[in-house]
Amino acid sequence: MTTETLAPAIVDNSEPAGVNNTLRAPISTDGTPELGKTYEVPARMGRAVRVAAGQTIRITNTHGTQVCDMWAFNVNSMNEFLSMEHFRAWVDRVNPQPGDAMVTNHRRPILTFKTDTSPGVHDTLIAPCDIHRYRTLGVEEYHDSCADNLRLALKAIGLRTREVPGSLNLWMNIPFDAQGGIQWQTTVSQPGDYVEFVAVMDCVVVMSSCPQDIIVINSNKPMPVHFTVF
Amino acid sequence: MTTETLAPAIVDNSEPAGVNNTLRAPISTDGTPELGKTYEVPARMGRAVRVAAGQTIRITNTHGTQVCDMWAFNVNSMNEFLSMEHFRAWVDRVNPQPGDAMVTNHRRPILTFKTDTSPGVHDTLIAPCDIHRYRTLGVEEYHDSCADNLRLALKAIGLRTREVPGSLNLWMNIPFDAQGGIQWQTTVSQPGDYVEFVAVMDCVVVMSSCPQDIIVINSNKPMPVHFTVF
Protein backbone atom coordinates (compact mmCIF):
# COMPACT_ATOMS: atom_id res chain seq x y z
CA MET A 1 0.00 0.00 0.00
CA THR A 2 1.56 3.28 -1.08
CA THR A 3 0.52 6.88 -0.64
CA GLU A 4 1.14 9.83 -2.89
CA THR A 5 0.31 13.47 -3.27
CA LEU A 6 -2.26 14.16 -5.94
CA ALA A 7 -4.10 17.16 -7.26
CA PRO A 8 -7.59 15.65 -7.46
CA ALA A 9 -8.96 18.25 -9.82
CA ILE A 10 -6.34 17.17 -12.33
CA VAL A 11 -6.33 13.42 -11.95
CA ASP A 12 -9.98 12.57 -11.51
CA ASN A 13 -13.43 13.77 -12.54
CA SER A 14 -14.68 14.78 -9.09
CA GLU A 15 -14.90 18.52 -9.62
CA PRO A 16 -18.18 20.05 -10.88
CA ALA A 17 -18.13 22.46 -13.79
CA GLY A 18 -20.21 24.88 -11.71
CA VAL A 19 -22.39 25.15 -8.64
CA ASN A 20 -26.14 25.12 -8.05
CA ASN A 21 -28.30 24.96 -4.96
CA THR A 22 -27.68 21.21 -4.64
CA LEU A 23 -24.51 22.05 -2.74
CA ARG A 24 -26.36 24.17 -0.18
CA ALA A 25 -29.41 22.01 0.51
CA PRO A 26 -28.53 18.51 1.73
CA ILE A 27 -31.30 16.66 3.55
CA SER A 28 -29.02 16.56 6.64
CA THR A 29 -25.37 17.18 7.45
CA ASP A 30 -24.23 13.68 6.53
CA GLY A 31 -27.20 12.61 4.41
CA THR A 32 -28.90 10.50 7.07
CA PRO A 33 -32.66 10.66 6.46
CA GLU A 34 -35.51 10.89 8.90
CA LEU A 35 -37.19 7.53 8.32
CA GLY A 36 -40.63 7.80 6.77
CA LYS A 37 -40.21 11.46 5.83
CA THR A 38 -40.72 12.40 2.19
CA TYR A 39 -38.01 14.59 0.70
CA GLU A 40 -38.03 16.53 -2.55
CA VAL A 41 -35.38 16.45 -5.23
CA PRO A 42 -36.22 19.84 -6.73
CA ALA A 43 -36.36 20.25 -10.49
CA ARG A 44 -32.82 20.41 -11.99
CA MET A 45 -31.21 19.54 -8.60
CA GLY A 46 -29.69 16.52 -6.86
CA ARG A 47 -29.84 14.93 -3.42
CA ALA A 48 -27.80 12.25 -1.64
CA VAL A 49 -29.22 10.03 1.09
CA ARG A 50 -27.73 7.30 3.23
CA VAL A 51 -29.67 4.06 3.12
CA ALA A 52 -28.60 1.44 5.65
CA ALA A 53 -28.58 -2.25 4.79
CA GLY A 54 -32.15 -3.55 5.05
CA GLN A 55 -33.79 -0.16 4.61
CA THR A 56 -35.93 0.63 1.57
CA ILE A 57 -35.85 3.75 -0.58
CA ARG A 58 -38.94 4.70 -2.54
CA ILE A 59 -38.47 7.18 -5.40
CA THR A 60 -41.63 8.73 -6.80
CA ASN A 61 -42.12 10.29 -10.20
CA THR A 62 -44.47 12.88 -8.74
CA HIS A 63 -45.42 14.43 -12.07
CA GLY A 64 -44.83 11.35 -14.22
CA THR A 65 -42.86 13.21 -16.88
CA GLN A 66 -39.52 13.34 -15.10
CA VAL A 67 -36.36 11.31 -15.56
CA CYS A 68 -34.39 10.66 -12.36
CA ASP A 69 -30.73 9.75 -12.77
CA MET A 70 -29.69 7.50 -9.91
CA TRP A 71 -26.43 6.16 -8.47
CA ALA A 72 -25.53 4.09 -5.41
CA PHE A 73 -22.16 3.92 -3.65
CA ASN A 74 -20.82 1.69 -0.91
CA VAL A 75 -20.64 4.38 1.75
CA ASN A 76 -17.65 2.70 3.38
CA SER A 77 -15.69 2.47 0.12
CA MET A 78 -16.73 5.02 -2.46
CA ASN A 79 -14.77 3.25 -5.19
CA GLU A 80 -17.46 0.56 -5.16
CA PHE A 81 -20.63 1.69 -6.87
CA LEU A 82 -23.63 0.51 -8.83
CA SER A 83 -22.40 -0.17 -12.35
CA MET A 84 -24.62 -0.51 -15.39
CA GLU A 85 -22.13 -2.60 -17.41
CA HIS A 86 -21.72 -5.02 -14.52
CA PHE A 87 -25.47 -5.09 -13.89
CA ARG A 88 -26.25 -6.03 -17.51
CA ALA A 89 -23.71 -8.87 -17.38
CA TRP A 90 -25.22 -10.04 -14.07
CA VAL A 91 -28.85 -10.30 -15.24
CA ASP A 92 -28.26 -10.95 -18.98
CA ARG A 93 -30.63 -8.10 -19.73
CA VAL A 94 -30.30 -4.42 -20.63
CA ASN A 95 -32.94 -2.94 -18.34
CA PRO A 96 -33.79 -3.66 -14.68
CA GLN A 97 -36.93 -5.37 -13.41
CA PRO A 98 -38.29 -5.97 -9.91
CA GLY A 99 -36.45 -8.88 -8.32
CA ASP A 100 -33.12 -7.94 -9.89
CA ALA A 101 -29.96 -7.65 -7.85
CA MET A 102 -28.39 -4.30 -8.71
CA VAL A 103 -24.65 -5.01 -8.61
CA THR A 104 -21.55 -2.92 -8.22
CA ASN A 105 -18.31 -2.70 -10.18
CA HIS A 106 -17.08 -5.33 -7.70
CA ARG A 107 -19.98 -7.58 -8.74
CA ARG A 108 -21.76 -7.53 -5.41
CA PRO A 109 -25.43 -6.63 -4.92
CA ILE A 110 -25.78 -3.17 -3.44
CA LEU A 111 -29.57 -2.83 -3.93
CA THR A 112 -32.44 -5.16 -4.69
CA PHE A 113 -35.04 -3.79 -7.08
CA LYS A 114 -38.21 -4.52 -5.13
CA THR A 115 -41.17 -2.67 -6.62
CA ASP A 116 -42.07 -0.78 -9.78
CA THR A 117 -45.57 0.65 -10.21
CA SER A 118 -44.60 2.29 -13.53
CA PRO A 119 -44.62 0.49 -16.90
CA GLY A 120 -41.00 -0.49 -16.27
CA VAL A 121 -39.31 1.74 -18.81
CA HIS A 122 -35.88 2.73 -17.48
CA ASP A 123 -32.53 3.20 -19.17
CA THR A 124 -29.01 1.88 -18.56
CA LEU A 125 -27.43 2.81 -21.92
CA ILE A 126 -27.04 6.59 -21.79
CA ALA A 127 -24.49 8.63 -19.83
CA PRO A 128 -25.81 11.22 -17.38
CA CYS A 129 -25.92 14.69 -18.89
CA ASP A 130 -22.94 16.90 -18.17
CA ILE A 131 -21.56 20.29 -19.15
CA HIS A 132 -20.01 18.75 -22.27
CA ARG A 133 -23.43 17.49 -23.37
CA TYR A 134 -24.93 20.96 -23.11
CA ARG A 135 -21.98 22.48 -24.97
CA THR A 136 -22.67 20.13 -27.88
CA LEU A 137 -26.34 21.20 -27.72
CA GLY A 138 -25.28 24.83 -28.14
CA VAL A 139 -25.51 26.04 -24.52
CA GLU A 140 -22.72 28.52 -23.82
CA GLU A 141 -23.31 29.46 -20.17
CA TYR A 142 -23.43 27.05 -17.22
CA HIS A 143 -26.26 24.52 -17.36
CA ASP A 144 -27.31 22.31 -14.46
CA SER A 145 -26.44 18.69 -15.20
CA CYS A 146 -26.93 15.28 -13.64
CA ALA A 147 -23.16 14.75 -13.46
CA ASP A 148 -22.67 17.97 -11.50
CA ASN A 149 -25.71 17.22 -9.34
CA LEU A 150 -24.06 13.93 -8.38
CA ARG A 151 -20.81 15.67 -7.47
CA LEU A 152 -22.55 18.49 -5.59
CA ALA A 153 -25.01 16.27 -3.72
CA LEU A 154 -22.13 14.15 -2.44
CA LYS A 155 -20.03 17.17 -1.59
CA ALA A 156 -23.00 18.60 0.35
CA ILE A 157 -22.79 15.64 2.75
CA GLY A 158 -19.00 15.47 2.89
CA LEU A 159 -18.43 12.72 0.33
CA ARG A 160 -16.75 12.63 -3.04
CA THR A 161 -16.69 10.40 -6.07
CA ARG A 162 -13.62 10.27 -8.25
CA GLU A 163 -15.63 9.29 -11.29
CA VAL A 164 -19.11 9.76 -12.65
CA PRO A 165 -20.36 6.21 -13.05
CA GLY A 166 -22.96 5.46 -15.68
CA SER A 167 -26.34 6.18 -14.08
CA LEU A 168 -29.52 4.15 -13.80
CA ASN A 169 -31.89 6.49 -15.58
CA LEU A 170 -35.28 5.93 -13.95
CA TRP A 171 -38.22 6.43 -16.30
CA MET A 172 -35.96 7.51 -19.17
CA ASN A 173 -37.53 6.20 -22.36
CA ILE A 174 -34.75 5.11 -24.71
CA PRO A 175 -36.19 2.38 -26.93
CA PHE A 176 -33.72 0.36 -28.96
CA ASP A 177 -34.08 -2.30 -31.63
CA ALA A 178 -32.19 -5.53 -32.18
CA GLN A 179 -29.93 -3.72 -34.68
CA GLY A 180 -28.93 -1.34 -31.88
CA GLY A 181 -30.67 1.85 -33.05
CA ILE A 182 -31.57 4.14 -30.14
CA GLN A 183 -34.37 6.70 -29.86
CA TRP A 184 -34.95 9.43 -27.26
CA GLN A 185 -38.59 9.75 -26.20
CA THR A 186 -40.78 11.21 -23.44
CA THR A 187 -41.57 9.11 -20.37
CA VAL A 188 -44.46 6.62 -20.30
CA SER A 189 -44.82 6.77 -16.50
CA GLN A 190 -47.83 8.28 -14.74
CA PRO A 191 -47.90 10.86 -11.91
CA GLY A 192 -47.21 9.09 -8.63
CA ASP A 193 -45.52 6.04 -10.14
CA TYR A 194 -42.73 4.85 -7.89
CA VAL A 195 -39.88 2.40 -7.62
CA GLU A 196 -38.50 0.82 -4.45
CA PHE A 197 -35.03 -0.54 -3.80
CA VAL A 198 -33.86 -2.40 -0.68
CA ALA A 199 -30.28 -1.71 0.39
CA VAL A 200 -28.12 -4.83 0.56
CA MET A 201 -25.17 -2.92 2.03
CA ASP A 202 -24.89 0.44 3.74
CA CYS A 203 -24.95 2.83 0.85
CA VAL A 204 -25.50 6.36 -0.28
CA VAL A 205 -28.07 6.79 -3.04
CA VAL A 206 -27.85 9.89 -5.20
CA MET A 207 -30.74 11.14 -7.31
CA SER A 208 -30.84 13.94 -9.87
CA SER A 209 -34.04 15.42 -11.28
CA CYS A 210 -32.60 15.58 -14.77
CA PRO A 211 -32.30 19.21 -15.93
CA GLN A 212 -32.41 18.30 -19.61
CA ASP A 213 -34.74 20.93 -21.14
CA ILE A 214 -33.46 20.95 -24.71
CA ILE A 215 -34.36 17.46 -25.88
CA VAL A 216 -37.71 15.86 -25.06
CA ILE A 217 -36.89 13.25 -22.44
CA ASN A 218 -38.44 15.34 -19.62
CA SER A 219 -41.17 16.75 -21.90
CA ASN A 220 -38.92 19.84 -22.03
CA LYS A 221 -40.01 20.86 -18.53
CA PRO A 222 -37.85 19.53 -15.66
CA MET A 223 -39.93 18.75 -12.56
CA PRO A 224 -39.14 17.52 -9.04
CA VAL A 225 -39.24 13.93 -7.87
CA HIS A 226 -39.63 12.77 -4.25
CA PHE A 227 -38.13 10.03 -2.11
CA THR A 228 -38.67 8.35 1.25
CA VAL A 229 -36.48 5.92 3.22
CA PHE A 230 -38.16 3.48 5.58
CA MET B 1 -6.95 23.59 -6.80
CA THR B 2 -6.15 21.57 -3.72
CA THR B 3 -3.81 18.66 -3.07
CA GLU B 4 -4.14 15.88 -0.58
CA THR B 5 -2.52 12.67 0.51
CA LEU B 6 -4.35 9.56 -0.59
CA ALA B 7 -3.84 5.85 -0.41
CA PRO B 8 -4.68 4.96 -4.01
CA ALA B 9 -5.34 1.30 -3.29
CA ILE B 10 -8.11 2.40 -0.97
CA VAL B 11 -9.71 5.23 -2.87
CA ASP B 12 -9.63 4.05 -6.46
CA ASN B 13 -9.68 0.89 -8.53
CA SER B 14 -6.18 1.14 -9.98
CA GLU B 15 -4.60 -1.84 -8.26
CA PRO B 16 -4.69 -5.25 -9.98
CA ALA B 17 -5.84 -8.29 -8.05
CA GLY B 18 -2.71 -10.12 -9.18
CA VAL B 19 0.12 -10.00 -11.70
CA ASN B 20 0.77 -11.72 -14.99
CA ASN B 21 3.38 -11.30 -17.71
CA THR B 22 1.61 -8.21 -19.04
CA LEU B 23 3.52 -6.19 -16.46
CA ARG B 24 6.89 -7.43 -17.68
CA ALA B 25 6.46 -7.26 -21.44
CA PRO B 26 5.56 -3.76 -22.67
CA ILE B 27 6.20 -3.10 -26.35
CA SER B 28 8.65 -0.35 -25.29
CA THR B 29 9.51 1.58 -22.14
CA ASP B 30 6.82 4.19 -22.60
CA GLY B 31 4.57 2.34 -25.04
CA THR B 32 5.74 4.16 -28.16
CA PRO B 33 5.49 1.73 -31.09
CA GLU B 34 7.80 1.20 -34.02
CA LEU B 35 5.59 2.35 -36.87
CA GLY B 36 4.59 -0.43 -39.23
CA LYS B 37 5.74 -3.19 -36.90
CA THR B 38 3.21 -5.86 -35.96
CA TYR B 39 3.01 -6.64 -32.24
CA GLU B 40 1.32 -9.53 -30.51
CA VAL B 41 -1.10 -9.32 -27.62
CA PRO B 42 -0.50 -12.85 -26.33
CA ALA B 43 -3.43 -15.00 -25.29
CA ARG B 44 -4.76 -13.91 -21.86
CA MET B 45 -2.46 -10.83 -21.78
CA GLY B 46 -2.71 -7.08 -22.37
CA ARG B 47 -0.67 -4.42 -24.15
CA ALA B 48 -0.70 -0.62 -24.17
CA VAL B 49 0.47 1.47 -27.12
CA ARG B 50 0.75 5.19 -27.71
CA VAL B 51 -1.00 6.35 -30.85
CA ALA B 52 -0.33 9.96 -31.85
CA ALA B 53 -3.05 12.12 -33.38
CA GLY B 54 -3.36 11.22 -37.06
CA GLN B 55 -1.84 7.77 -36.71
CA THR B 56 -3.87 4.63 -37.35
CA ILE B 57 -3.99 1.48 -35.25
CA ARG B 58 -5.00 -1.78 -36.88
CA ILE B 59 -6.08 -4.62 -34.58
CA THR B 60 -6.28 -8.06 -36.15
CA ASN B 61 -8.29 -11.03 -34.94
CA THR B 62 -5.56 -13.39 -36.06
CA HIS B 63 -7.49 -16.57 -35.26
CA GLY B 64 -10.98 -15.15 -35.67
CA THR B 65 -12.30 -16.63 -32.44
CA GLN B 66 -10.88 -14.09 -30.02
CA VAL B 67 -12.51 -11.18 -28.21
CA CYS B 68 -10.26 -8.14 -27.68
CA ASP B 69 -11.27 -5.72 -24.93
CA MET B 70 -10.11 -2.25 -25.87
CA TRP B 71 -9.77 1.12 -24.13
CA ALA B 72 -8.35 4.50 -25.16
CA PHE B 73 -7.12 7.27 -22.86
CA ASN B 74 -6.08 10.85 -23.51
CA VAL B 75 -2.40 10.33 -22.76
CA ASN B 76 -2.06 13.88 -21.46
CA SER B 77 -5.01 13.57 -19.08
CA MET B 78 -5.78 10.00 -18.08
CA ASN B 79 -9.12 10.98 -16.56
CA GLU B 80 -10.40 11.43 -20.10
CA PHE B 81 -11.10 8.11 -21.79
CA LEU B 82 -13.24 6.39 -24.38
CA SER B 83 -16.63 5.86 -22.74
CA MET B 84 -19.26 3.45 -23.99
CA GLU B 85 -22.22 5.29 -22.38
CA HIS B 86 -21.10 8.56 -23.93
CA PHE B 87 -20.43 6.89 -27.27
CA ARG B 88 -23.94 5.40 -27.44
CA ALA B 89 -25.48 8.81 -26.69
CA TRP B 90 -23.27 10.38 -29.37
CA VAL B 91 -24.21 8.06 -32.24
CA ASP B 92 -27.73 7.05 -31.07
CA ARG B 93 -26.73 3.43 -31.53
CA VAL B 94 -25.52 0.62 -29.27
CA ASN B 95 -22.68 -0.73 -31.39
CA PRO B 96 -19.96 1.03 -33.38
CA GLN B 97 -19.67 1.14 -37.15
CA PRO B 98 -16.97 2.49 -39.50
CA GLY B 99 -17.30 6.26 -39.76
CA ASP B 100 -18.26 6.66 -36.09
CA ALA B 101 -16.53 9.12 -33.82
CA MET B 102 -15.52 7.23 -30.69
CA VAL B 103 -15.99 9.79 -27.91
CA THR B 104 -14.66 10.19 -24.41
CA ASN B 105 -16.35 10.84 -21.08
CA HIS B 106 -15.73 14.51 -21.93
CA ARG B 107 -17.70 14.02 -25.17
CA ARG B 108 -14.78 14.61 -27.51
CA PRO B 109 -13.73 12.25 -30.29
CA ILE B 110 -10.59 10.35 -29.33
CA LEU B 111 -10.65 7.85 -32.22
CA THR B 112 -12.42 7.56 -35.54
CA PHE B 113 -13.57 4.07 -36.47
CA LYS B 114 -12.19 3.79 -39.99
CA THR B 115 -12.30 0.20 -41.20
CA ASP B 116 -13.90 -3.09 -40.26
CA THR B 117 -13.32 -6.18 -42.41
CA SER B 118 -15.28 -8.38 -39.97
CA PRO B 119 -19.08 -8.74 -39.95
CA GLY B 120 -19.26 -5.80 -37.53
CA VAL B 121 -20.26 -7.67 -34.39
CA HIS B 122 -18.76 -5.86 -31.38
CA ASP B 123 -20.09 -5.18 -27.90
CA THR B 124 -20.45 -2.09 -25.73
CA LEU B 125 -22.84 -3.47 -23.09
CA ILE B 126 -20.71 -5.84 -21.01
CA ALA B 127 -18.09 -4.95 -18.41
CA PRO B 128 -14.57 -6.30 -18.92
CA CYS B 129 -13.97 -9.50 -16.97
CA ASP B 130 -12.31 -9.08 -13.57
CA ILE B 131 -11.36 -11.17 -10.57
CA HIS B 132 -14.89 -10.77 -9.20
CA ARG B 133 -16.33 -12.23 -12.39
CA TYR B 134 -14.18 -15.34 -12.08
CA ARG B 135 -15.07 -15.68 -8.38
CA THR B 136 -18.77 -15.81 -9.34
CA LEU B 137 -17.88 -18.45 -11.96
CA GLY B 138 -16.31 -20.62 -9.24
CA VAL B 139 -12.62 -19.86 -9.79
CA GLU B 140 -10.81 -19.73 -6.44
CA GLU B 141 -7.21 -18.99 -7.44
CA TYR B 142 -6.02 -15.98 -9.43
CA HIS B 143 -7.37 -15.81 -12.98
CA ASP B 144 -6.09 -13.44 -15.67
CA SER B 145 -8.69 -10.80 -16.46
CA CYS B 146 -9.19 -7.96 -18.89
CA ALA B 147 -9.50 -5.47 -16.01
CA ASP B 148 -6.14 -6.52 -14.58
CA ASN B 149 -4.58 -6.61 -18.06
CA LEU B 150 -5.63 -2.96 -18.47
CA ARG B 151 -4.07 -2.00 -15.15
CA LEU B 152 -0.89 -4.01 -15.77
CA ALA B 153 -0.41 -2.89 -19.39
CA LEU B 154 -0.60 0.74 -18.29
CA LYS B 155 1.65 0.17 -15.31
CA ALA B 156 4.18 -1.50 -17.62
CA ILE B 157 4.61 1.81 -19.49
CA GLY B 158 4.46 4.03 -16.40
CA LEU B 159 0.80 5.04 -16.56
CA ARG B 160 -2.16 4.40 -14.31
CA THR B 161 -5.92 4.56 -14.55
CA ARG B 162 -7.96 5.25 -11.45
CA GLU B 163 -10.95 3.41 -12.84
CA VAL B 164 -11.69 0.56 -15.19
CA PRO B 165 -13.87 2.18 -17.82
CA GLY B 166 -16.37 0.07 -19.69
CA SER B 167 -14.49 -1.50 -22.59
CA LEU B 168 -15.19 -1.67 -26.30
CA ASN B 169 -15.32 -5.44 -26.74
CA LEU B 170 -14.11 -6.09 -30.26
CA TRP B 171 -15.69 -9.15 -31.91
CA MET B 172 -17.61 -10.05 -28.74
CA ASN B 173 -20.93 -11.49 -29.87
CA ILE B 174 -23.62 -10.36 -27.45
CA PRO B 175 -26.89 -10.28 -29.39
CA PHE B 176 -29.80 -8.52 -27.72
CA ASP B 177 -33.45 -8.14 -28.61
CA ALA B 178 -35.74 -5.11 -28.41
CA GLN B 179 -36.97 -6.33 -25.01
CA GLY B 180 -33.39 -6.13 -23.77
CA GLY B 181 -32.58 -9.83 -23.41
CA ILE B 182 -28.86 -10.54 -23.82
CA GLN B 183 -27.12 -13.70 -25.03
CA TRP B 184 -23.43 -14.68 -24.90
CA GLN B 185 -22.19 -16.36 -28.09
CA THR B 186 -19.00 -17.24 -29.95
CA THR B 187 -17.51 -14.74 -32.40
CA VAL B 188 -18.65 -14.54 -36.02
CA SER B 189 -15.36 -13.04 -37.24
CA GLN B 190 -12.92 -14.87 -39.52
CA PRO B 191 -9.16 -15.35 -39.09
CA GLY B 192 -7.38 -12.19 -40.20
CA ASP B 193 -10.38 -9.87 -39.83
CA TYR B 194 -9.25 -6.47 -38.63
CA VAL B 195 -10.48 -3.10 -37.46
CA GLU B 196 -8.72 0.25 -37.87
CA PHE B 197 -9.06 3.37 -35.76
CA VAL B 198 -7.49 6.76 -36.47
CA ALA B 199 -6.40 8.73 -33.40
CA VAL B 200 -8.02 12.16 -33.11
CA MET B 201 -5.90 13.11 -30.11
CA ASP B 202 -2.66 11.72 -28.71
CA CYS B 203 -3.82 8.67 -26.88
CA VAL B 204 -2.83 5.37 -25.37
CA VAL B 205 -4.80 2.39 -26.62
CA VAL B 206 -4.95 -0.69 -24.40
CA MET B 207 -5.93 -4.12 -25.70
CA SER B 208 -6.56 -7.34 -23.79
CA SER B 209 -6.80 -10.76 -25.43
CA CYS B 210 -9.72 -11.75 -23.24
CA PRO B 211 -8.75 -14.68 -20.96
CA GLN B 212 -12.34 -15.84 -20.54
CA ASP B 213 -12.09 -19.64 -20.85
CA ILE B 214 -15.16 -20.68 -18.84
CA ILE B 215 -17.97 -19.28 -20.95
CA VAL B 216 -17.99 -19.58 -24.73
CA ILE B 217 -17.21 -16.07 -25.97
CA ASN B 218 -13.66 -17.04 -27.01
CA SER B 219 -14.69 -20.58 -28.05
CA ASN B 220 -13.23 -21.58 -24.65
CA LYS B 221 -9.69 -21.21 -26.00
CA PRO B 222 -8.10 -17.76 -25.55
CA MET B 223 -5.82 -16.86 -28.47
CA PRO B 224 -3.55 -13.92 -29.30
CA VAL B 225 -4.49 -10.90 -31.39
CA HIS B 226 -2.07 -8.58 -33.21
CA PHE B 227 -1.80 -4.84 -33.78
CA THR B 228 0.13 -2.37 -35.91
CA VAL B 229 0.39 1.42 -35.74
CA PHE B 230 1.14 3.36 -38.91
Automatic annotation (TrEMBL), chains A, B:
Keyword flag Methyltransferase: yes
Q: Where in this protein does the record put region Disordered?
A: 13-35
Keyword line: Methyltransferase, Transferase
User: Does Methyltransferase appear among the keywords?
Assistant: yes
Per UniProt, residues of the DUF1989 domain are 40-204
Record PANTHER family? RE64534P
> Which protein, by its recorded name, is this?
Aminomethyltransferase
Q: Which organism is it from?
A: Pollutimonas subterranea
